[in-house]
Fold:
Amino acid sequence: MSGQTSQRPLVTRRSLLQAAGGGFLFGLTSVGVSFPLRGEEFQSKKQLRLKSADPLNAEPELALLTREWITPNELFYVRNHAPVPAIKPESFRLVVEGMVRKPLSLSLADLAKLPQTSVVATMTCAGNRRSEFNQIKPVGGVQWDAGVIGNAEWAGVALSAVLKQAGVKTGAKHVWFEGLDEIPQGDGHIPFGGSIPLAKAQADTEQAPGALLATAMNQEPLPPEHGFPLRTVVPGYIGARSVKWLGRMVVSDQPSPNHYLAGAYRLVTETTPAAWAAADPLYEFPLNSAIALPAGDASVKPGKIRVRGYALPRGAAGNAIRGVEVSADGGAHWTKAKLAMPARQFCWTLWDAEVAVTPATTGLLVRASDTSGQTQPEQVPWNAKGYMQNSWYKSPVKVSG
Ligand SMILES: Nc1nc2c(c(=O)[nH]1)N[C@H]1C(S)=C(S)[C@@H](COP(=O)(O)O)O[C@H]1N2
Ligand SMILES: [Mo]
Structure:
């Protein structure tokens, strides 16, 4: 790999229009960015809307995102807190320590010798749909829309297998993950990190595949921005628990003290130390859905229109989407959508519906329900970091006579 940074457009209007077959896309601008990869050239041609260049944060257009159940890597959102670290595969090690009988230091070759497995799981950021909170009161952070979600086939080694090899000691309750990225804090820097309950890390059955130490994404080596050479993938949990560039795991009787577990990714209304301490860490992602087509800024003719989008069940084992409903009259009447995929745990499903709109229609709503008995709420309470927005999704589509 060369030591240059590349100067290439992340997204162009033309490439997006081509990919979308020329339809349905509005308001896209071409962004040329200097890509802040350290010592590594950016290889993939991402088709994303840039939210910030350094660190890189980008999400796809919903119309493109929802064309396929498996999200192509080029359309998979990127959420980084620091520059993408350049990691030499030869010298890479995953260290496993803490409450284990046999601490480990595993090379990629060591990991490759363990049984390989794969899981299809949806990754979504706790900040998906964050920008909608601004209607109540402004929230800081990356102003995400509803595209901070993607469904991929992840392959690698089962986390449970590595824990078994290390031998977890009695009394352990959590597994900490630490990335090799360097996030500026004070005069120094901290890694991105977090933890998951040991029970989740060890839950690994045919019906409910467990967390993975992934080396591949959709049959390709993990792209640098998605965690090359190794990341965790925790099916059902918010994206923040799937730590990229994983360098260290610690088995402990305590949750991780890392900032991204202890002082972020919790629901707080004020960001005081006391408020953070009083709130619980977020783990499972919430039941959610969004309308991809027609696009929010589209104008449609009165009559029957086709509406399309995604729905995600809350990330509990065995839980799947039960139904999706669309309303064209503010929630007075609901039309059942057709699911394009058999509903599965830990995975989104794509749906479409046919609804009638009139010149009086002022937008479309969608809400989903899952087999755990939940239905998306009409409203959710505001929180200071704008996490877990899962109220009925509103598309402000216009009807022109
Ligand atoms: N090391 C590291 N891991 C990380 C992050 C990060 O900034 N650094 N971001 C997290 C967050 S908040 C999310 S939503 C997912 C995003 O994964 P993706 O960029 O592959 O889509 O990675 C998580 N893992
Ligand atoms: Mo996230």
Notes: The pocket of molybdenum atom (ligand 2) is lined by residues 79, 125-127, 239-240 (CB under 6 Å). Residues 159-166 form the longest helix (8 residues). The CA atoms of residues 177 and 249 lie 5 Å apart. Residues 1-44 have pLDDT under 50 and may be disordered.
